Amino acid sequence: EGKGKKRSPLHDFKKTGELMLIKVNKTLEIKTKLLNTTEQCAKRCSRNKGLSFTCKAFAYDRVTKRCHWLSFNSLTNGVRKKQDHAFDLYEKKDYVRNCIIGKGADYKGTISVTKSGIQCQAWNSMIPHEH
């Protein structure tokens, strides 16, 4: 990081252009608000500021400058993808990443088997290995 340079909150997100997520499961939550930039949307999503749920993604409507914070992402059951030229989808990398970075303490992905197909040991188990 350079001196005096702030890290963009967008670095924590994977961007997919022209895509919106539609919730099929009605229990999933969305909150929207007018905001001028994707950076402002990302910052609020990362901090869960003013949200009653854990923000896993947001979609930014470039036409109306409206941010849609989502309690779900593209990997969540009960969600479908929709091509939409007005939107860009930003998903928190921690929730869509398929690999562990460092010790994996922040890993929230969906992979639960090793490369060779062996089921991973649960974090709350000391069998067959101690952590």
From TrEMBL:
> Transferase among the record's keywords?
no
Cellular component per GO, a single term = extracellular space
Report the residue ranges that make up the Apple domain in this protein: 8-94
Keywords attached to this Swiss-Prot or TrEMBL record, sorted alphabetically, are:
Disulfide bond, Kringle
CDD domains in alphabetical order: PAN_AP_HGF
**Molecular-function GO terms, alphabetical:** endopeptidase activity; signaling receptor binding
Domain of life of the source: Eukaryota
Where the record annotates domain Kringle, the positions are 98-131
- What is the recorded name of this protein? HGF factor
Origin organism is Vidua chalybeata
Q: Name the gene for this chain.
A: Hgf
